[in-house]
Amino acid sequence: MTFLSILLALLFEQFKPLRADNPVYAAIKQLAARMEATFNAGQEGHGRMAWIVTMLALLVPATLVWWLCEKLSPLLALAWNVLIVYLTLGFRRYSHYFTSIQLALNSGDEATARALLAEWTREDAAGLSAGEISRMAVEKALVTTHRNVFGVFFWFAMPLGPAGAILYRVAEYLSRAWNEPDHLRGEPFGVFATRAFYVLDWVPARLTAVAFAVVGNFEDAIYAWRNYAHRWKDEAIGIILSAGGGAMGLRLGTAAENAADMPLADAALGETLTAEIETPVGEEATARALQSTVGLVWRALLLWMLLLLLLSFAVWLG
């Protein structure tokens, strides 16, 4: 049922992608804001309590409905699974940005590409060259695909089922919502949310990197993973981007050195890179790299689906 649920959800999303401003996401955002306003008293323990209460408020009803559907009818259980996967996946939700940037660069319209990139990443893209735009778009696409697709696949395949997919996606959102805004950045309240998502994403991030390596240039992907992933402050992002870049023969990430030998913020993802020891191998990203990224993502998706199919067969035969 896991493979069939994901396959149907992917097909539905191809025909009708879920908008980013849909009512379900709006309700979760309101819940997260309400929990922060209620529990935040400046201590890390308050953030831990808010995270647990938020998850219980979402996971318990979802699990009860899943259990009830399985008791009533396998078709109802399948329908519930498809609905949850459809709501938690985001394969097509942001692809229009990537496609539009690719078309703008191919036509030489760098101004439009900068505007689209700034809207997508919510970072200042003024003055960026075509190569920098391409690099940032590739980085954003790889990380977004992992968090909105492959991470969901992994947790949905776990025994928690649809509750696992909800757990992963909400944990990813809380790690951003309780740390990125100006009034929360650096506060202890968001520390637990960051740690919780790190734990939940530890295995999926590495499986995504392995998938990129298998469907791309394996040797270069593994070499880049081992030697350059540490340049990013966020370990999971470093693993995904270094392996993805190596698989395509691209040099991703920005130089971390400056005159004062201090960290430099990566404009693509808001991450901080540590000082570089050596320059990564690979070519600089160009507009053609965006097409390579599309191919890599689709091949990785097919690999994940094949593994899920084999897993479903093994469970059925067992």
From TrEMBL:
The annotated pathway is: Cofactor biosynthesis; adenosylcobalamin biosynthesis
Q: Which domain of life is it from?
A: Bacteria
What does the record list as coiled-coil region(s)? none
One Pfam match, given by its short name, reads CobD_Cbib
- Which residue spans traverse the membrane? 49-68, 75-94, 149-168, 296-317
Q: Is RNA-binding tagged as a keyword? A: no
**Topological category with respect to the lipid bilayer:** Multi-pass membrane protein
Keyword terms of this UniProt record: Cell membrane, Cobalamin biosynthesis, Membrane, Transmembrane, Transmembrane helix
InterPro entries in UniProt = Cobalamin_biosynth_CobD/CbiB (IPR004485)
Give the UniProt subcellular location, in the record's own words: Cell membrane
Q: What is its main location?
A: membrane
UniProt record similarity statement? Belongs to the CobD/CbiB family.
Q: What does this protein do?
A: Converts cobyric acid to cobinamide by the addition of aminopropanol on the F carboxylic group.
From the Swiss-Prot or TrEMBL record, give the protein name. Cobalamin biosynthesis protein CobD
From the broadest rank down, the organism's phylogenetic lineage runs: Bacteria, Pseudomonadati, Pseudomonadota, Betaproteobacteria, Burkholderiales
What gene codes for this chain?
Answer: cobD_1
